[in-house]
Every structure is written in C-alpha cells, then in structure tokens.
C-alpha cells in the first residue's frame, strides 16, 4: 500500500496501480530491463496490473517472468471503457492509473490518481487534460509511486 498525508491532513491511500502498456511502459512494444525492475519493486507495495490493446502483439512475451504483475490483453474492439470498468471494479478511489493514450482517458476520469506519460510515442491531449500529473517517462511515473513524498510536492494546494 502507498499512503501519503497532504499538508491539509488529507490522507491518500493507493492499493493498486493500473498501467497502459504501449506508449506508456513500452516503446514500439518493447519494455526496457529498467522498467521491468521498477515494476517488480512497485509490485512489492501494491497490486500492479497492465491493461493493453497490445498494438504490437509483444506484451505477453515482453512481460514474461514478471509473475507479480497481472497482464490483461483487451479483446479487439475493447478499449477505454473496459479499462475504466476494471479500475472501478478494483476500487477507483484507491487506484492509480498511468497511461498516455486516448483509450486511457476514461480510466483517468474514474481513478483516485491519474498520471500521464509523455514518452517517445507522445501523449493524447484528451488523456493529458484528464490527468492529475504529467511526467516525462515511465521511470518518472513509477518513481513518484516508489517515493510518494514527491506526490505531496506535486499535489499540494
């Protein structure tokens, strides 16, 4: 669990992090060893789920061996609404979502905290505007969660 106390006394608690895959964690369908290591570290604190349309068809092989990370590959035609449904079922208020695409916007709107990644594949403006925090990379997004006091600095009034 990740818990932070804001200066006004509000306590924010997160039990799950849901990631998009392509453009968020992976570039051209490939995930770096550094991201794999960070996901493993994060999974020691919270439930980590990756939900993807798997544009490049590489998610399953790229995430092989990350047994502490749940992978959900969406059926063709499923998208943002399905991602949002999963977040709601998991508990919106205690879920952080991390993405970059148009199909991430719906989950951004229902999650307790949303982080948009401006990675090498860019970010959809609807996702950007729906997010609470914008970061340069997946490493930065995971770093916020592994070092939650950084969230206080970004989210405080």
- What is the CA-CA span between the terminal residues? 23 Å
Poorly predicted regions: none
Give the topology string: H per helix, E per strand.
EEEHEHEHEHEHEHH
Query: What level of helicity do the residues show?
Result: 25-40%
What brief labels describe this structure?
7 helices; 157 residues
How would you characterize the overall build of this protein?
- By secondary structure, the chain is of the alpha/beta class.
- The chain contains 7 helices and 8 strands, in the order E-E-E-H-E-H-E-H-E-H-E-H-E-H-H.
- The protein has a 6-stranded parallel beta sheet, sandwiched between helices.
- Helix 2 links the parallel strand 4 (47-52) and strand 5 (69-73).
Which helices and strands occur, and which strands form pairs?
Layout: E1 2-5, E2 11-14, E3 16-19, H1 33-43, E4 47-52, H2 59-62, E5 69-73, H3 80-91, E6 95-99, H4 105-110, E7 113-117, H5 125-130, E8 133-135, H6 138-146, H7 149-155
Parallel strand pairs: 3-4, 3-6, 4-5, 6-7, 7-8
Antiparallel strand pairs: 1-2
How do you describe this structure in short?
The protein has 157 residues and is of the alpha/beta class. It has seven helices and eight strands; from the N terminus they run βββαβαβαβαβαβαα.
């Amino acid at each position: 669990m990740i818990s932070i106390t804001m200066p006004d006394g509000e306590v924010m608690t997160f039990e799950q992090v849901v990631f998009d895959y392509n453009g968020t964690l992976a570039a051209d369908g490939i995930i770096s060893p550094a991201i794999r290591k960070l996901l493993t570290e994060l999974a020691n604190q919270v439930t980590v789920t990756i939900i993807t349309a798997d544009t490049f068809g590489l998610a399953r092989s790229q995430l092989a061996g990350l047994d502490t990370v749940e992978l959900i590959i969406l059926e063709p035609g499923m998208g943002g609404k399905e991602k949002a449904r999963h977040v709601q079922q998991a508990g919106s208020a205690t879920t952080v979502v991390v993405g970059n695409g148009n199909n991430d916007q719906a989950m951004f709107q229902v999650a307790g905290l949303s982080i948009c990644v401006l990675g090498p594949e860019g970010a959809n403006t609807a996702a950007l505007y729906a997010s609470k925090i914008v970061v340069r990379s997946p490493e930065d997004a995971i770093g916020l969660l592994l070092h939650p006091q950084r969230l206080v600095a970004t989210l405080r009034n």
